[in-house]
Amino acid sequence: MTIADSRFMMEDGGIRLPCSPEEERRIFEELTRKAEANLAAGNIYYLISYRWFVSWKKYVGLWDDEDFISTLPYHSHNRGFAKASCRPGPIDNSDIVIGTLATEKDEPHLIKDLKDGQNYVLVPEEVWEKLFDWYRGGPAIPRKMIPEGLCKSMFSVEVYPLLLNLIDSRDGKESILQFSKQDSVRKLYDKVCSVTGVEEEKIVIWDYFKRSERVVLLVSDQSLEEAGLVMGQDILLEVKEDRATTPFFEFGMDSTGNELALAVIEPPRSSLSIAGGPLLSINSSVHEGGFLSSGVTGMGSIYSITNTAPAVEKGGLAGLQNLGNTCFMNSAIQCLVHSPPLAKYFLDDYSDDINTENPLGLQGELALAFGDLLRKLWSSGRSAIAPRAFKSKLGRFAPQFSGYAQHDSQELLAFLLDGLHEDLNRVKRKPYIESKDSDSRPDEEVAEECWINHRARNDSLIVDVCQGQYKSTLVCPVCGKISITFDPFMYLSVPVPSPTTRVMAATVISGDGRGLPMLYTVTVQKLGSVKDLLEALGSVCCLNDDECLLLAEVYDHKIFKYFENPAADLSSIKDEDCLVAYRLQKKQVTNTKLEIHCGKYLGSLRVEKRRFGCPLVTYLDEKCLTGADICSAVSRVLSPFRMKRVTLPLFQSHSEDGMCIDTDVTEKYHDQLIDDVETTDVLTCSLNPNLHYDDENVSEALIDESAVFWPGQSVRVFLDWNDKVHQMYDYNYLGNIPAVNKGEDTLKEAKQESLTLFSCLEAFLKEEPLGPDDMWYCPGCKEHRQATKKLDLWRLPDIIVFHLKRFSYSRYWKNKLDSFVDFPIHKLNLSKYVKSNEVSAQSNVYDLYAISNHYGGLGGGHYTAYAKLMDEDKWFHFDDSHVLPVDESDIKSMAAYVLFYQRVKGDNTIMETDGEKAAEQQQPSDAQTVRT
To answer: Is the distance from CB of 192 to CB of 168 less than 8 angstroms?
Structure first.
């Protein structure tokens, strides 16, 4: 192998030849195994560009194309990575950095939201040293491994260190400082002193969140994460001048920026506070809600002030600030804090229920942090709250939610409900209870026994109001053994059945001017192809045997793409895409294609164009073409839009002396000649001065009638729609092409085919066989069997949560189902799904009170929440900091993701068993609008 380009000079002037690919591979695998066997906090890992690392793995023979495809996003599978066997060049990390941090000795600054295994890989320090020794390059991007989790038993590499913006109050100078989130506040002071050259005794550093809140940071061993500092936050440096005897926490500001005095902190009287931390005696003014929104940090805890002033406005309408991709958290929290039982509980004194001894809990800290945040939201009127303290606690207890990447709101809800339950569990010591088989005993007896055993170990508010019980039946397919168990549930994750068909709309436009555009809606197989869509459109528009349809997507009044491959999947076409099908002659499809765009020039220079309507497409004759042929074709395609009354001087004729004069065309004359070829020729002459080449690089290039275009050459022209043209053609037809709002008929059809919450629940409860990877050990056969499983609801909680499983994953693709699921807002009756004979003992009718919404796809999206204010029949939309009222008729949408229902007390209405009334309730009324 020739490797001359890979040589480099040694310090002694000699030339070092690289190792063989086999040797590099052996060394890499050996060092990697050694590093994995010695994981510890403080180990250094280096980031390497995934692109460069792929080329190196191919070179040394570590590459597996199949494994690589499974790690890519769905839309990236077809991009392709050419196999390479040549030695890669120097390490190149330029595609994952965007400059350096000047104050951090040229520390590389990473691009935001990079993903491990897609944008970069992490290699141990020893591996990096070898790779750098072999290839050089860079820049080097070292990162430290830190412990995480409640017991600090988990390790992760801190890819994105904490960046803080230091503001010097003396001159306003700003600089970026980089820390680990587990560095102490003491280290923050040391680094600031090192950068500024000021002694520690003379400085004060303030938590300056959003430059509106100002809270002192005391020198301590408290971590920066525990102090509530977040990525990109401002901190303020204040240098004291000859005030050695004055405590540096003498001066402060409240969240509104007003100065206030802070007294010396007294020792806490109790170890717990309902507001979320040790009690603190502070004689100071607070803002309207009665809380300091960030608290005073010190002694390793976050201190908060309990309510000292009534809210000036109704509570529950406060938004939550987005700290950076925390919309998922904000949506989940708003749904929980507007759950009436939870809100009333945490607004009262719950200190006696805090369980600090539960090994499965979080020492009560999660419940205290949540209660503190809930009280702020219910007491701050409409002031937006920054949930930094809660986010910090969440990251400590659940490392999967640390950092500022996007997460799933339902996963956070599951963690919060379980964590709150364990922190509030009234059972201090859980007894051991041996599980028993049903042994053919009555279901009521077994269910009650299981519930009593469950409550003996789990007794909290969450169990009281959020936990139900379902019956699970397993049947062995060989010996017929039946196993019945009764298990608790906190929420129901119901599947969203994927519809087999979809309704698609497209506007069919004649390419030869034989008719006006028509909007058609057709039903096709969801997993069908473009050919299926074209056949359905051809059938409804009565396509002739000698005609064909050319399908295109129009975006921003331009043709975005043609769907010329009939085998292409319909999944590549989204419901919101604007589709146009051009009706053309089959014999002309190999001829020159002509695209006609309409619009107006802006300004006197006639450079910028404002387009409108939809492009028109036709094919020209096969023979050699001229500019005059193009003008004639444009006039022919526009003929269906021609005005029926022409009373203005449009045509030109010649007098006896040869002078050109204007001639008025009356209605009678126009009607007589509307189909005459001579009239078309006259109109063509009138269009000619307004036709231009549609080329962004050519300004005001008129169509030359003598220009020659060879067959097969695609031509695109721009029709300047001035007043003269406007008087000749009806703009309304062109302006409404295509009719992308699918109209009332299309919406009604989509509603009729929409799914319902009942159908999702029935799919969850239906009998189905277990998967090959989830075999059941049959006690009769003494073997693992692929048994059938059937779930039934047995006991329902006061608060029932439905999680619509919109996201699906496999090895090679990921998908989100945007199907509209219709759900009742009032009187959700679940009686027929409850198998307990004691169904009449309590109500199984529920009203909706909150929704967590997800907009967008898998690669990105946004979470919001709808919630009904407690004790009021008013709905509000919570979008991070923004809170707006919303009509009840508007809360149903395809974005609904998690639904929260509360039991209606005293309503034992039994649902009709024939399903007729249920079907009526499942269908949305015609007055409702499906928001897309």
So the answer is: no
Angle between helices 21-36 and 125-135 in degrees, nearest 10:
160
Q: What's the rounded Cα separation, in Å, for the pair 17 and 5?
A: 10
Active-site hit among 597, 692, 862, 882 = 862
Q: What is the mean pLDDT of the segment spanning 809-814?
A: 56
Domains of the chain: 21-65+87-157 (3.30.2230.10), 162-239 (3.10.20.90), 324-474+797-906 (3.90.70.10), 501-643+689-727 (3.10.20.90)
Tell me the whole-structure pTM to 2 decimals: 0.56
The per-residue pLDDT for range 372-384, each reduced to its tens digit, is 999 989 886 777 8
SS (H, E, C) 800-820: EEEEEECEEECCCCEEECCCC
Question: Counting every residue, how long is the chain?
Answer: 932
Q: Is 295 left (phi over 0), alpha (psi -120 to 50) or beta?
A: left
Nearest to 297 by CA among 332, 252, 338: 252
Three-state SS for 271? coil
327 is catalytic: yes
The pLDDT assigned to 269 comes to 30
Residue-averaged pLDDT of the chain: 74
Q: Write the DSSP string, 685-701.
A: HHHGGGEEE--TTSSS-
User: Rounded distance, CA 628 to CA 785, Å?
Assistant: 78
DSSP at 479:
T
Tens-digit pLDDT profile for residues 542-577? 999 889 999 999 888 888 888 988 888 888 888 778
- Planar angle of CA 842, 846, 848, nearest 5 degrees: 160
Helix 365-379 to helix 388-397 angle (10° resolution) is 160
Contact 193, 203 (CB under 8 A): yes
| C-alpha radius of gyration, the chain, whole number | 35
Element containing residue 147 per DSSP (H, E): strand 142-148
Concerning whether 548 is annotated as a catalytic residue, the answer is: no
CA atoms within a 13 Å half-sphere pointing along the CA-CB vector of 910:
9
Contact yes or no for 499/822 (Cβ under 8 A): no
Whether the per-residue pLDDT at 849 is higher than 90: the answer is yes
Tokens 């043209």, located at residue: 725
Among residues 327, 476, 598, 614, which one is catalytic? 327
Question: Which residues neighbour 892 within 8 Å (Cβ) at sequence distance 6 or greater?
Answer: 820, 822, 823, 825, 924, 928, 930, 931
Alpha-carbon distance values, 120 to 47, 113, 146, 148 (Å): 6, 11, 19, 22
315-319, 499-503, 761-765, 921-925: range with highest mean pLDDT: 761-765
pLDDT tens digits, 202-236: 888 888 877 766 778 888 888 887 777 877 788 88
Q: Percent of the chain having pLDDT more than 70?
A: 72
